[in-house]
Amino acid sequence: MRLATLLEDAGVDPRAQWILAEGADASGMSRSVPLEKAMGDALVAIYQNGEPVRPSNGYPMRLLLPGYEGNMNVKWLRRIKLTEGPTMTKDETSKYTMLQNDGKSLQFCFAQEAKSVITRPSPGLTMGAPGLYEINGSLPGRVMDGIAKVEVSADGGASWASAALQEPVLPMAVTRFRSPWRWDGGPATLQSRATDDSGYVQPTRSKLIADRGARATYHFNGIASWAVAQSGEGKTCLRITRLLAACLVLLAGYGTALAESPNLGKTASPEEIASWDISIGPGGAGLPSGSGTPQQGEQVYLAKCLACHGEKRVGQAERPTGRWPRIRFGPGQAPVKTVGSFWPYATTLFDYVRRAMPLNESKSSAMRRYMRWVAYILLLNGIIGESDKIDAHTLPAVRMPNRDGFVRFFPREMILNRAPDVRSRNELCGKVCFWRILCKSLFGVANENS
Ligand code: HEC
Predict the structure, then answer these.
(1) pLDDT above 70: percentage of residues in the chain
(2) Which residues line the pocket of ligand 1, CB cutoff 6 A?
(3) Which residue range is the domain that position 340 belongs to?
(4) Can you tell me the distance from the alpha carbon of 74 to that of 354, in angstroms, rounded to the nearest whole number?
(5) Same domain, 419 and 340
(6) 360 Cα: distance to centroid of ligand 1 (angstroms)
(7) Could you report the per-residue pLDDT of 148-190, keeping only the tens digit for each?
């Protein structure tokens, strides 16, 4: 089903420019998506290949954003929330941002850049006798610019031959390619590379690292190489990084469906919406009352977090080795993608700790503890002092050291990925503004800054 149908049915507040799509997994994997995409070709998938979406693929429903990278297609979709700005969840500030060599990170890089991979022969396959083989592989559907061609090489990129694209070549669909290859029985290195309509060529791994540094791995689209050994076994040559309810779709709208709409589901009450609403954006809307200090946080941290994270205050015993992941960034340490050295907003800390931590019992603690944990982690990172109080007012006001370390990437993608049937926002607004006047029951759009 088109997400636009659901959103139109619920009514969209004209202030909304983004949605937050939230998963029902333990860590509540959540991503902000531009409203244009949500109202365009976005789907909520309940079936796949004629059967219900499988549990590992997000049963009972998942978001599907054609042309966007896989991680954006939130599985086990529990909630959609309309927001003015992006929520800045952990997944979109830390993990899925591209840290460049110059120290800045590209953020909201949604669309897939030119990419291809050979699926046969590939590691795990033992080849037979020398002779004629078919090399085949796939392209991950629509990339940022359309795919112009795919080439394959059997000599590690010294020479290339054009591969045939298997029809039908449809926008947004995975496309297969193939090419004949006469194997002489000797060692060979198989590679494929895609070129998009703008002339951008899928880069080698070393070019990617030279351009973007070695820490942009979450968006790896470099050339994958398979080494074929003398014996005929396919081996990995270069390291390839794999990108790897009945749910309530909670629509923060006007609570009244449009008269001509299909009237899907029932209108959620403000109480129901509040009970599902766990996201905290940069503006801090939704933070609970009450406060916490690092001193209060220390005891609960030692009891519930130390076992895995192992961080103690400076002067105390250092973190045990091998504990992961690090949540402190101290002076003299190499920058890591964690709280003190990376996260742009302190509100993300509350949002993430409440939705995901402690890892083995997420969403189980009393609300006051979250503020205390947050305060203690901010102290560990040297961002607040020992006796600073963290509450709904002070947390959004905390200025994180890497606040200005991000460069937004998405506007270019939004133009290129706009589906042909996307209606203009003015047209949409006209429809919902009418209901705004009529319903006068405005609620639900979080007042986040962007
Ligand atoms: C059972 C082990 C475990 C316990 C206990 C635990 N954590 Fe975690 N924590 C993890 C793991 C694993 C991750 C990384 C999850 C991921 O990236 O998907 C993580 C990630 C985090 C992060 C984000 C770090 C980053 O930079 O990405 C924070 C903050 C955090 N935990 C805080 C806490 C707090 C506060 C507690 C105690 C209330 C706690 N954790 C208890 C295992 C644990």
Answers:
(1) 78
(2) 27, 90, 94, 304-305, 307-309, 325, 327, 338-339, 349, 352-353, 357-360, 373, 377
(3) 294-391
(4) 19
(5) no
(6) 10
(7) 899 999 999 999 999 999 988 887 788 899 999 999 999 999 9
